[in-house]
Amino acid sequence: MSKVSRRALMTGAAAVGVTAAGAVGYRVWRDREPTAPAAQDAQGHLLWRNWSGIRDCYPAQRGAPANEAELAGLIKTGPAPIRAVGAGHSFTALVPTSGLLLTLDQMSGVISHDADKLQATVRAGTRLGDLGPALAAIGQEMPNLPDINKQSLAGAMSTGTHGTGHGLKAVHGEALSFRLATAKGEVIDCSPTSNPDIYNAARVGLGAFGVLTEVTLQNQPLKRIVKRVELRDFDEICEDWPKVRLQHRNAEFYAIPFTGKAALITADVTDQPVVPRGPDVDTQTLMDLKKLRDLFGFVPPLRKAVAQSLMGGIKPEVMVDEGWKLLSNDRPVRFNEMEFHLPREAQIPALKEVVAAIEKHRSDVFFPIEVRTIEPDDAWLSPFYNRPSGSVAVHAYYKDDYQFLFDLIEPIFRRHEGRPHWGKLNSLKYADFATLYPRWKDACAVRAELDPTGRFLNPYLRSVFLGQA
């Protein structure tokens, strides 16, 4: 959303606040920090906790290898389950372990590049936010970027993290090859011609096949883009979406519940002079939407009328810069999230059902709902495997109850044959994935051969790959 929308919401909310101040007390008791786990357990093991705060563990051992040899040694000798963590932005229980917790933060940076082929080999612990300027320095950029750039490259690939855009794949879709540290303490090369089955199975591997150490990416020439943010009527953008998503290199929109509005965001290559994006204002915009929820959530029609009045005069916001500076965002406001990837023709029908269900049953929701498109690829465990996809992501403020995502939202996604984002909340198990993924059993067989004793499987991953409760 734009800085203009923030100012409008701030001014309007202040103007009506006096008349509805009593409603604030209704939310005060709920607007408290969730209780945090103890900083260490009875054995003195220190707490690990994910970004949103809903996953935690007390690893018996932690490791921060500086190179492949150190990593291989830790894998051979460390206590199982062995799990690697990047930024901790996954909401599923991928990371928690009572055994060895690894970070690849010391294994970061660009190793080499090919200027003619626009390829770069990158250490897998590199954060996407650091990779952008590093690639720009050699005249390259990733074809696509996710909404948040705090993830490590390994974490983004392993969970099928993606951006949005016509003709653009998820992060792993541009991985030409990678190196993988296995349960035996070996490091192997994987590509379409070297260990091809492992390459196909572990490109999106959830850290269950081994630990990625480096990746060779197919990039593109560094470009400048013009990014435009504008408010549209929700029904109008739903009607226009099949055309709009094809008219721009990148396109997405955020449906804003209880307002009848949506924020459309597009990006296209340009040679226009730079117009910097300026300070990030999304945090204040979210808090203004929360304020509308707190003041008027008890009367949804009034909430909608006030929101539409405040948003009525907002003008589009335009910025121009290199893509890596504009396509990803800071998201300091914590949340929990469920995102499913749907057959593209089912995206808008599912979205309309989601918005209707929220507006009927969940007046506490204020986060916008993110809508993106992703091209198919051939990684066996990719949510986009052989299917043009449209994603819908529903968020819950970290202080709010998120059980509704399972009870109310997930059944809608599943009716539309959605595949869940591997790092986002879902309740699916082995049998569900076996139905959704044509190469599921093949991938499971590769995993079992690489790690027959399950050293990389924590309890959650045992339920996913082995069907164990």
Automatic annotation (TrEMBL):
Q: Which domain of life is it from?
A: Bacteria
What Pfam families has UniProt attached to this entry? ALO, FAD_binding_4
InterPro entries according to UniProt:
ALO_C, FAD-bd_PCMH, FAD-bd_PCMH-like_sf, FAD-bd_PCMH_sub1, FAD-bd_PCMH_sub2, FAD_lactone_oxidase-like, Oxid_FAD_bind_N, TAT_signal
**Keyword flag Oxidoreductase:** yes
Q: Which residues form the FAD-binding PCMH-type domain?
A: 55-222
Listed GO molecular functions? Answer: D-arabinono-1,4-lactone oxidase activity; FAD binding
Example of a GO cellular component annotation carried by this entry: membrane
Question: What UniProt keywords apply to this chain's record, in alphabetical order?
Answer: FAD, Flavoprotein, Oxidoreductase
Stored NCBIfam families: bact_FAD_ox (TIGR01679)
Record protein name field: FAD-binding protein
